């Protein structure tokens, strides 16, 4: 099957629309030019100057504009084509060792002065409560421009081309006998970020994300049963070339066959299994059990009321075993295509790459300028992020990935020697406790492994384990050729809640004697 | 925030631009919002801020083709561009098969859930309140973490067919987690109200501290099926999954817990304990809702579950038209109540021979939509009760449990008085069987 399709194919399918101008113009704020840039710089400078005048020892401001395009379909119809744009600025100030923040959708010098007054008043009110003053790790003064890598700007692609892609995707899945429903979406995100600090940094960045997704459903109306098979979560920091180059139609057809097979699959027999976890599922396990447990703000209790703390303690770096000696986990904000990849973080620290777990030992944290000094480090690893100009920046996860084996190890080699096991692919239900010990993950497609070979599909299965034991039970990791990067576009954390897009790379990996549940219920 | 006149004038301007650009039907909404928060941990404020924003959304139809745009720039040029762009998108989109003409003029009562005190929160007063909270934590030798939030919004909507509406809403909330210094005890408590003056941070802190101290040094018990008492917070943590399944379309399409065999739904079935009812009421004194659905249908008091019977599934306008039903005038909130005399929480504990008392749940996810099986974990206070007395704290547990089975006629033993946990009013419950599958070491 063709990995993509042309406009001609779309027209031939009978779904085509009237030809003509197909890329409506975007609002003026996205026509980046000297006028817009000058107003933005003037507002930022005014906010920083006013904050200093009112007593701030440090201040930074993010003047950001975002645009999103979303197309949603179900079966043979388009549900929604929408675009949104947002522009505004958020000022953060440090006064007497306490933070204050104020933000507005108005970007001009007068509003900048108002925000400085509001942010300083908030900081002063809170400084009285501070048992400890905030101290920032030093950072370089940066003047830079950075743009994420893409070859085709998705906002320049005609809307009918995008509609055609989704309708063809749906048609392909619906062509499989037994598929009842399919929904698909294309979400495109464009962030234009401007950062200025009282230390003199001035950074302009642009990040482009492309996020196609679909879900197939098979319903057996007579029995009152149904199953779904979602696509692997595939958002990436790339352009529209991702839609054109990846074999989406092949994926849709496979999803159709798998959801029909799933409806007829035998329920899993609960028990202990050796499991091989595909990158399409393991990325999520890494996210929850490694990504969140190595956030220093959690270990220090900053997230105790919401996301929780961590089983790792602030003094554990360099002294605590995390998993088997073959396990190496790396944090990287410069990884190509990674959703958390950036040039500079939201306090102007250059993208970094560092080890979190080396040879199975936990060796380092995710940090920001505020957090690094609290574990005796001189420099931040650059993990500060805000999901909007209106949101207070706080520590967020970089891309956290499992390194592949140094030599080639295939998936079949990981299966060999397994008498009774399961191969788990795709995103299923995930849940983990507030210190990141106890987790439970499902999968989109789960098959038996019998005597080293892949067998029949099973349903209603989830694996459940405890982070240290799970990573200690890892005795096989795929080689470089099997490494894949998947991501999640909406990782929640903080109060008020913010979302973060982040990717995790990994090869498939084998884990011994993991507890598997049958999750089907009865009413 | 924008006044009624300001917001509706903006709507009219965008509508005029949309019509001029060729829109045959259109709906415009203008929402202005202000939000403030103070977050604390490690016995100090960690982040605190205030933000204001405006969202202008326009959806248009041209030859039943639909286009939608939104932005936050209210300048004259931007409003025209927003409408023009929506029309351009509509012109190149396929026919919107679920198009239903926008609403005409309708009467709406004023929303009851707004107060100025929440919209214009006093930052200094909030700092004093949090100082009390942190003092309470320090005096009890616990580490306090939490957040105080206030949000207010004003939303105006105008349609090309003459519908005009404007509602304001406010919401204040405070939640606190107290952790003992030895790291073996943790307690959480929360409260919310549309009037910030009704959110008692000091009382919330005392409850959280008491739970932290009482939960120190928990011991493990075997996972299994136990009788449990769910505090109101724990019930609220599960309730979203039940109300999320009340959509008629999913049930009609055979992919919901309320779908039945042979293409039918479970409407009219006695699925829940006969004392349980679930209704929505925009005029509820404690938990007022916006008096209109998102689509603009004037909201009324509606009953979804009456005395254990699934009485109503919700029909948005398109699905109602498709199925020859009336669009559902709600829900805008969810009120779970008992029809019989209530059993306060202390009485529930006294009446429990052997079982668990659960404060709240965490990371709850839908495992099996066919029976609303959820998984998640207990958190911040779990105790073993025996002979009507709380005996000792126990280690947290992971559950895998169907909500339908939890609320089934054979399982509910006692129902308490409902409390506000927005968007729910929920009671504490005692149920006969609740299934836990593993132990969590998390505190």
Task: Explain what the structure shows.
The complex is a heterodimer of chains A (523) and B (443). Chain A is built from 10 helices and 26 strands. Chain A has 523 residues and is an alpha+beta fold. In chain A, strand 6 and strand 7 form a beta hairpin. In chain A, helix 2 packs parallel to helix 3 and helix 4 (159-174) runs parallel beside helix 6. Chain B has 2 domains: 4-213, 2-Layer Sandwich (PmbA/TldD fold), CATH 3.30.2290; 218-442, no CATH class. Chain B has a 6-stranded antiparallel sheet with strand order 3-2-1-4-5-6. A 6-stranded mixed sheet of chain B has the order 10-9-8-11-18-17, covered by helices on one side. Classes of the chains: A alpha+beta (523), B alpha+beta (443). Chains A and B meet through strand 2, strand 3, helix 3, helix 4 and strand 6 of A and strand 1, strand 2, strand 3, helix 2 and helix 4 of B. Strand 3 of chain A pairs parallel with strand 2 of chain B.
Question: Which secondary structure elements does this structure contain, and how are they paired or packed?
Answer:
The complex is a heterodimer of chains A (523) and B (443).
Chain A: H1 7-12, H2 34-53, E1 58-74, E2 77-95, E3 98-104, H3 109-127, E4 143-147, H4 159-174, E5 181-197, E6 202-220, E7 225-230, H5 241-245, H6 248-264, E8 266-267, E9 271-277, H7 279-291, H8 296-299, E10 320-321, E11 329-332, E12 353-358, E13 361-362, E14 384-385, E15 394-395, E16 399-402, H9 411-415, E17 420-425, E18 430-432, E19 438-441, E20 445-450, E21 453-459, E22 461-466, H10 467-472, E23 474-477, E24 484-493, E25 498-506, E26 509-518
Chain B: H1 4-20, E1 25-41, E2 44-62, E3 65-71, H2 76-91, H3 116-119, H4 123-139, E4 142-159, E5 164-180, E6 186-193, H5 201-214, E7 225-230, H6 232-243, H7 248-252, E8 276-280, E9 302-306, E10 309-310, H8 317-322, E11 334-338, H9 345-350, E12 354-368, E13 373-386, E14 389-393, E15 397-402, H10 403-406, E16 412-415, E17 419-421, E18 424-426, E19 429-439
Parallel strand pairs in B: 7-12, 11-18
Antiparallel strand pairs in B: 1-2, 1-4, 2-3, 4-5, 5-6, 7-19, 8-9, 8-11, 9-10, 12-13, 13-14, 13-15, 15-19, 16-19, 17-18
InterPro entries (chain B): Metalloprtase-TldD/E_C, Metalloprtase-TldD/E_cen_dom, Metalloprtase-TldD/E_N, TldD/PmbA_N, TldD/PmbA_sf
Pfam families (chain B): PmbA_TldD_1st (PF01523), PmbA_TldD_2nd (PF19290), PmbA_TldD_3rd (PF19289)
Family (chain B): Belongs to the peptidase U62 family.
């Amino acid at each position: 099957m063709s990995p993509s399709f042309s406009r001609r194919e779309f027209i031939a399918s009978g779904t085509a629309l009237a030809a003509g101008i197909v890329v409506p113009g975007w609002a003026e704020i996205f026509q980046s030019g000297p006028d817009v840039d000058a107003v933005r710089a003037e507002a930022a400078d005014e906010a920083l100057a006013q904050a200093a005048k009112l007593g701030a020892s440090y201040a930074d401001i993010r003047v950001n504009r975002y645009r999103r395009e979303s197309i949603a379909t179900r079966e043979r119809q388009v549900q929604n084509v929408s675009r949104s744009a947002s522009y505004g600025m958020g000022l953060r100030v440090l006064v007497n060792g306490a933070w204050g923040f104020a933000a507005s959708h108005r970007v001009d010098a007068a509003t900048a002065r108002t925000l400085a007054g509001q942010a300083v008043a908030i900081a002063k009110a809170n400084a009285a409560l501070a048992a400890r003053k905030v101290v920032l790790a030093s950072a370089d003064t940066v003047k830079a421009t950075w743009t994420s890598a893409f070859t085709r700007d998705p906002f320049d692609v005609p809307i009918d081309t995008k509609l055609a892609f989704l309708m063809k995707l749906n048609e392909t899945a619906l062509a499989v006998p037994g598929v009842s429903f399919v929904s698909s979406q294309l979400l495109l995100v464009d962030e234009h970020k401007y950062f200025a600090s009282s230390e003199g940094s001035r950074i302009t960045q642009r990040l482009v994300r492309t996020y196609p997704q679909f879900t197939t459903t098979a319903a057996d109306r007579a029995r009152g049963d149904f199953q779904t098979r979602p696509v692997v979560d595939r958002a990436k920091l790339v352009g529209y070339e991702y839609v054109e180059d990846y074999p989406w139609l092949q994926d849709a057809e496979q999803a159709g066959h798998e959801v029909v097979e799933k409806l007829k699959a035998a329920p899993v027999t609960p028990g202990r299994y050796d499991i091989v976890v595909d990158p399409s599922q393991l990325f999520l396990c890494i996210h929850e059990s490694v990504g969140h447990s190595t956030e220093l703000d959690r270990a220090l209790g900053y997230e105790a009321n919401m996301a929780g703390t961590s089983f790792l303690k602030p003094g554990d770096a360099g002294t605590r075993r995390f998993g088997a000696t073959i396990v190496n986990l790396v944090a990287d904000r410069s990884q190509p295509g990674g959703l958390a990849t950036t040039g500079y973080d939201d306090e102007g620290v250059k993208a970094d790459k560092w080890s979190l777990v080396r040879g199975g030992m936990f060796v380092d944290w995710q940090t920001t300028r505020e957090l690094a000094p609290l574990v005796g480090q001189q420099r931040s690893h650059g993990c500060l992020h805000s999901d909007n100009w209106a949101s207070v920046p706080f520590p967020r996860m970089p891309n956290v990935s499992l390194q592949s084996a140094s030599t080639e190890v295939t998936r079949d080699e990981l299966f060999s020697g397994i008498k009774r096991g399961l191969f788990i692919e795709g995103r299923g239900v995930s849940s983990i406790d507030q210190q990141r010990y106890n987790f439970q993950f499902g999968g989109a497609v789960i098959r038996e492994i019998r005597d080293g070979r892949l067998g029949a599909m099973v349903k209603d299965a989830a694996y459940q384990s405890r982070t240290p034991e799970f990573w200690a039970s890892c005795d096989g990791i795929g080689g470089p050729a099997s490494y894949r990067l998947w991501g999640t576009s909406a990782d929640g954390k903080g109060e008020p809640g913010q979302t973060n897009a982040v990717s995790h790379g990994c090869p498939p990996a084998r884990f011994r004697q993991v507890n598997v549940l049958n999750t089907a219920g009865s009413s | 925030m924008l006044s009624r006149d300001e917001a509706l004038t903006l709507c009219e301007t965008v509508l005029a631009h949309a019509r001029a650009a060729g829109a045959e039907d259109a709906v415009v909404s203008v929402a202005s919002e202000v939000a403030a928060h103070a977050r604390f941990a490690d016995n100090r404020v960690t982040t605190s801020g205030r933000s204001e924003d405006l969202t202008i959304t326009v959806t248009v139809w041209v030859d039943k083709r639909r286009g939608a745009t939104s932005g936050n720039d209210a300048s004259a040029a931007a409003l025209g561009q927003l409408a023009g762009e929506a029309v351009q998108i509509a012109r190149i989109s396929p026919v919107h098969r679920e198009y239903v003409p926008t609403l005409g003029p309708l009467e709406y009562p004023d929303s009851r859930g707004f107060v100025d005190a929440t919209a214009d929160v006093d930052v200094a007063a909030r700092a004093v309140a949090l100082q009390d909270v942190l003092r309470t934590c320090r005096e009890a030798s616990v580490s306090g973490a939490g957040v105080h939030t206030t949000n207010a919004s004003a939303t105006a909507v105008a349609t090309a067919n003459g519908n005009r509406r404007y509602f304001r809403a406010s919401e204040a909330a405070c939640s606190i987690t107290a952790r003992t210094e030895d790291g073996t005890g943790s307690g959480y408590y929360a409260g919310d109200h549309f009037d910030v003056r009704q959110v008692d941070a000091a009382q919330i802190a005392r409850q959280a501290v008491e739970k932290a101290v009482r939960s120190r040094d928990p011991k493990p018990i075997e996972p299994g099926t136990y009788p449990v008492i769910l505090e109101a917070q724990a019930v609220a943590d599960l309730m979203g999954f039940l109300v999320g399944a009340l959509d008629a379309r999913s049930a009609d399409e055979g992919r919901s817990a309320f779908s039945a065999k042979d293409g039918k739904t479970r409407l009219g079935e006695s699925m829940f304990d006969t004392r349980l009812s679930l209704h929505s009421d925009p005029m509820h004194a404690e938990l007022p809702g916006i008096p209109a659905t998102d689509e603009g249908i004037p909201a009324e008091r509606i009953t979804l579950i009456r005395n254990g019977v699934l009485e109503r599934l919700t029909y948005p306008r398109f699905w109602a038209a498709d199925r020859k039903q009336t669009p559902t005038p709600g829900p805008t909130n969810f009120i779970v109540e008992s029809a019989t005399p209530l059993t306060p929480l202390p009485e529930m504990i006294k009446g429990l021979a052997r079982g668990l008392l659960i404060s709240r749940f965490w990371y709850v996810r839908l495992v099996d939509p066919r029976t609303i099986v959820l998984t998640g974990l207990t958190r911040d206070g779990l105790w073993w009760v025996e002979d009507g007395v709380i005996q000792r704290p126990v280690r947290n547990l992971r559950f895998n449990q169907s909500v339908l089975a939890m609320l089934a006629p054979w399982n509910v033993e006692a129902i308490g008085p409902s409390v506000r946990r927005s968007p729910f009013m929920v009671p504490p419950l005692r149920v006969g069987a609740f299934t836990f599958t593993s132990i969590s070491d998390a505190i």
